[in-house]
Write a structure and sequence with these properties.
This protein is mainly β and about 140 residues long. The chain has a domain of about 80 residues. The protein is built from 1 helix and 7 strands; from the N terminus they run H-E-E-E-E-E-E-E. The longest helix has 19 residues.
Length: about 140
């Protein structure tokens, strides 16, 4: 009788170990193959933080500061676009640390100052993964 119980416990233990070694069933399709999400994410709407050009102060990584620059920031692609005085649209190649947007009308109709800053890196670096934005008192213009 004792040997029968020992064999039964041994079989149950081996079954549990075999089940534990299998991969996560939620990551497989109905045929047991690894699930591949074939579609890429398609975003809707504008990729820009603000659709129109707005005057801003730009702080570069080397400490230089440029005031009253007309800027648009593409959040999706992580690049900064600016407009020259004659209306030409250009992309910034300088390493940008922060952008301070001056007083503007936001969705609720309030004039505020908005700061964009890269959490880990530079605003116009594709390796950057997160941008933080906040409303502040004052304007460093």
């Amino acid at each position: 009788m004792r040997s029968l119980i020992t064999i039964l416990l041994l079989c149950l233990t081996l079954g549990a170990v075999a089940q534990r070694d299998q991969s996560n069933p939620f990551l497989n399709d109905a045929n047991g193959r690894p699930l591949y999400w074939g579609a890429s994410y398609v975003s809707e709407g504008s990729p820009f933080f603000l659709d129109q050009y707005n005057f801003a102060v730009i702080l570069l990584a080397n400490g230089e500061k440029y005031s009253e620059v007309k800027v648009k920031y593409n959040i999706q692609e992580h690049w900064v676009q600016y407009q020259t005085e004659d209306g030409k649209e250009m992309m910034s190649l300088s390493a940008i640390k922060k952008i301070y947007f001056g007083p503007m009308v936001l969705a609720d109709g309030v004039f505020e100052n908005v700061t964009l800053e890269a959490v880990n890196g530079l605003l116009n670096d594709k390796r950057q993964t997160c941008t933080r934005c906040w409303i502040q008192e004052g304007y460093p213009g």
